[in-house]
Amino acid sequence: MNTAAFYHRPESEYAYLYTEDILHIRLRTAKADVKKVAVLMGDPYLLQEEQWYQQETPMTLLTSTDLYDYWLLETSAKHKRLQYAFHITGVDGLTAFYTDRGVYPFTEAFTALPNFYFRMPFFQEIDRFKSPDWVKQTIWYQIFPERFANGDTTNDPAGTLPWSSQEPSRTDFFGGDLQGVLDHLDYLADLGITGIYFCPLFKASSNHKYDTIDYYEIDPDFGDKALFKKLVTEAHNRGIRIMLDAVFNHTGDSAPQWQDVCKHEANSAYADWFHVNSFPVVYGENGNFEGQATLSFESFAFTPHMPKLNTANPEVQKYLLDIATYWIREFDIDAWRLDVANEVDHHFWKKFHTATTALKEDFYILGEIWHSAQQWLQGDEFHAVMNYAYTETIEDFFVRKQITPSKMVAGLNEQLMLYRQQANEVMFNMLDSHDTARLLTICRDNKDLLRATLAFTFLQHGSPCIYYGTEIGMTGGNDPGCRKCMVWEKAEQDQAILHFTKALIALRKEYQALLSFGRLNWLIVADQAQVIGLERIDQKQELVAVFNQGTTNYSFETKDKVRMDHLVLKGKSSYCIQPGGFIITVKERS
Question: Is 234 in the active site?
Answer without folding.
Answer: no
